[in-house]
Design goal:
Layout lengths: L1 H21 L16 E8 L4 E7 L16 E6 L2 E5 L1 E5 L2 E6 L9 E7 L6 E6 L5 E20 L4 E20 L7 E9 L4 E4 L1 E2 L3 H4 L8 E2 L2 E2 L5 E4 L7 E10 L8 E9 L1 H14 L15 E2 L2 E13 L4 E8 L4
Parallel strand pairs: 1-20, 9-21
Antiparallel strand pairs: 1-2, 2-6, 3-4, 3-7, 5-6, 7-8, 8-19, 9-10, 10-17, 11-12, 11-16, 11-18, 13-17, 14-15, 18-20
Length: about 325
């Protein structure tokens, strides 16, 4: 629903613009609007993984052409004041990345990115790599909803009962040990994987202390909130506490059918947190004539984000399983 509002709003703006242009006595040349595109940096990395980033040029918001990639930049990364390496242009899944082959972010590292694109001023960005969150006392309750119905076999001329899984619910609680010495920002997600697929789950957090900062993004559904792939919150209301976090997610089959399922609790750098929050707010803008949301960036002489996530992976293994039988009648 939230994306529908966005496209309706865009359609109205486009129609109004078209009417305005057609009413002019002379054709309006709009080429000037994107005459000087900016350098766009997307450098979102994970602790202990090879550092990489993408560079593109910005474009006018009504331009449907692919973003033009930048393949002639000089990229240098400094770590704690020392040069860590230069970006090597590499193609990964048809997209171009600048990769620092000999560096992976470490907790507490201070990163500084320097990018020189021909005919542009130096583009820079800074961030500090956060520490992995400390969690304990995870408890998982599995609720399997089984439905049964009567079916008829015309070959044997007999009826039989069919039982199958309609849905599975996973109710998870854990203790988050927040560090009182610094402001912390967190992200929660859940994922199942097997030999061929990774399946992300929509998580539900019905804790209004933690949900306050995402209240403009989450849709209220009945007595709870709509699920999100990545739940974001800060420690502004729980600073320094050992706080019990309760989340849940649904799936159409038991997680035992996958090789592994993980709850991922990540610490994320502050600028990345605000970038993700404001980007979700902009994408979910439902007011056709509301004030635009300014997406948070930390790039100087350009736009974009330099940020790092530090995840803690907790394997989800149910402590208790409850099977609920539900009868379905077919008319």
């Amino acid at each position: 629903m939230k994306y529908t509002y966005k496209y309706i709003r865009l359609a109205i703006v486009t129609i109004v613009a078209a009417i305005s242009i057609s009413s002019c006595s002379e054709p309006l040349n709009i080429d000037y609007i994107d005459r000087d595109p900016m350098v766009v940096v997307k450098a979102i990395n994970e602790v202990d993984s090879t550092f990489a980033l993408r560079l593109t040029y910005s474009r006018w918001f009504l331009d449907n052409h692919p973003f033009k990639e930048i393949d002639d930049a000089d990229v240098t990364l400094f770590v704690n004041g020392n040069k860590a390496g230069n970006g090597i242009l590499t193609t990964i899944n048809t997209k171009k990345y600048y990769v620092i082959n000999n560096y992976a972010p470490k907790e507490n590292d201070n990163l500084e990115l320097s990018i020189q694109v021909p005919e542009y001023d130096e583009v820079t960005a800074k961030c500090k790599v956060p520490k992995r969150p400390i969690v304990s006392n995870m408890h998982v309750e599995e609720v399997i909803h089984m439905y049964s119905y009567e079916n008829y076999d015309y070959i044997t001329d007999s009826s039989y009962t069919v039982k199958d899984t309609s849905s599975c619910e996973y109710i998870i609680s854990f203790t988050l040990h927040d560090n009182p010495a610094e402001q912390n920002f967190y992200m929660i997600s859940a994922m199942s994987k097997d030999s061929t697929w990774r399946t992300p789950h929509y998580v539900y957090v019905e804790d209004y202390v933690l949900s306050e900062e995402m209240s403009s993004i989450l849709e209220i559904i009945g007595d709870g909130v709509d699920g999100v792939r990545e739940f974001l919150f800060s420690d502004s209301k729980i600073n320094g506490k050992d706080y019990t976090v309760k989340i849940s997610f649904d799936n159409y089959k038991p997680i035992s059918k996958y090789d592994e399922t993980f709850l991922i609790i990540s610490s994320i750098s502050p600028d990345l947190y605000y970038h993700m929050i404001t980007k979700e707010q902009e994408e979910g803008l439902g007011d056709l004539f509301g004030e635009p949301v300014q997406i948070h960036c930390n790039v100087e002489n350009g736009i974009g984000i330099l940020g790092v996530t530090s995840p803690t992976y907790e394997r989800i293994i149910p402590d208790v399983t409850t099977v609920k039988d539900e009868t379905v009648e077919y008319w």
